[in-house]
Amino acid sequence: MNGLRAIIICLVVTCAAVVSPAAVATPATRSWSVLPVPAAAPPVIVSDLAARGPGEAWATGYEQAADGLRPMLYRWDGTAWNRDTDFPGAAEPGWLGKVQFVGEDMWILRNRQGTGELLRRSAGGWSAVPLPQTLWTYQDFAAVPGAAWVVGEDDTGLKVLHYDGSGWTAQTTPDGVLFLMGITARSATDAWAWADTSTGTAVLRWDGTAWRDAKVPLPPDSNVHTMLLEPSGRITIGGSQYTDGVSRTYLMTFNGHAWRTTYPPVGDTYTAGMVRGPDGALWIPLRSDRAFQSKYGRVDGSRTSFSYGPQRTNAIDVKPSVLARAGSALLSFGTVEIYGSKPNLMSERLGG
Predict the structure, then answer these.
(1) What is the enclosing helix (H) or strand (E) of 231?
(2) Contact 49, 331 (CB under 8 A)
(3) CB atoms within 10 A of CB 79
(4) Which of 14, 18, 60, 193 could form a disulfide with 47 if both were Cys (CB 3.0 to 4.6 A apart)?
(5) What is the pLDDT of residues 27-83, one digit of tens each?
């Protein structure tokens, strides 16, 4: 009897060891819930989502109107999503891109009939900050108190436009930089950008005087999707690395002293929608393996777990695009395709 008991214990221990703690598919302690969103004109593209707290969030993008693209702006008031059409030129062709909170204001990168501008919403209402020139592409922007940047291209090549609160100047980048794919900032003298260069992908840093190569040891044959700058000094980079023709997601974290690279088991996931959640973990919207449910990855150190959104009747593709921390909750915004119709907007919340 003792021998049989020993065999059973060994089998249990062996089975437990086979399950890797690095990739555990378990339901979250809190479940995702559906937040209804007023429909737009499909097909729709979601650009960005930002939240100031549990009672205010904004989602941007564009819809397909009869005469072309139309900007799309939605506001969360803590209870419901509503479409906002009060901003200047809301009915004109164009699109809305990244949205950021800057102090008490909210800023949005906007393409208005081919001309770029920054929309700004303050206590006094809406205003616009026009760019000093028209670009072929408006790739990204970043804004902080006292400064803003817009990056893109015109017929002469790369452009980095800098706003100091009163006017614009053009900034130069190091030799060999071909294109800036994204930009983010912590302050007027601490901005970061990820670039395509003549020798591969590189990370640049603005120190208040000049843009310089930050010498970040990115994985070989990789690109960068996003950077998260935190007040503590921690930095997280999300991107993809290509090895033998196969792409896989990597995360790099800087703790103030050194960079650490990990490869969470999320396949080849585009990490631009990644955020630091209220629980301290990284949350990433994923391509779901269930047609009728969204999927999210939670990365906490070396441990990755997954959760699914609510089941949606007759859904054939549920795609969360962006996430934002809203107080003690997570907000998700994206699209859902119901059988027989084109993709339209969807939102979900975890906690709150």
Answers:
(1) none
(2) yes
(3) 8
(4) 60
(5) 345 799 999 999 999 999 999 999 999 999 999 999 998 888 999 999 999 999 999
Which residues lie across from 121 on neighbouring strands? 106, 126
Distance of alpha carbon 139 from alpha carbon 175, whole angstroms:
20
Per-residue pLDDT tens over the stretch 250-269: 999 999 899 999 999 999 99
Distance of CA 298 to the CA centre of its chain: 15
pLDDT score, position 26: 40
Structural tokens at position 322: 């962006």
Structure tokens at 63: 């819809």
CA dihedral (112, 97, 311, 337) in degrees, to 10, reads 40
Chain segment 294-340, per-residue pLDDT in tens: 999 999 999 999 999 999 999 999 999 999 999 999 999 999 999 99
Task: Give, rounded to a whole angstrom, the gap between the first and last alpha carbons of the chain.
Answer: 52
* 8 A C-beta contact, residue 351 and residue 329: yes
Strands 303-308 and 23-24 turn out to be parallel
The CA dihedral of 19, 24, 26, 28, to the nearest 10 degrees, is 150
Burial class of 332 by CB neighbour count within 10 A (0 to 12, 13 to 18, 19+): buried
Closest C-alpha among 139, 246, 235, 154 to residue 196: 139
What does the chain come to in residues?
Answer: 352
- Give all strands of the β-sheet with 282-286 in edge-to-edge order: 23-24, 303-308, 295-300, 282-286, 275-276
Tokens for 208, please give them. Answer: 């208040």
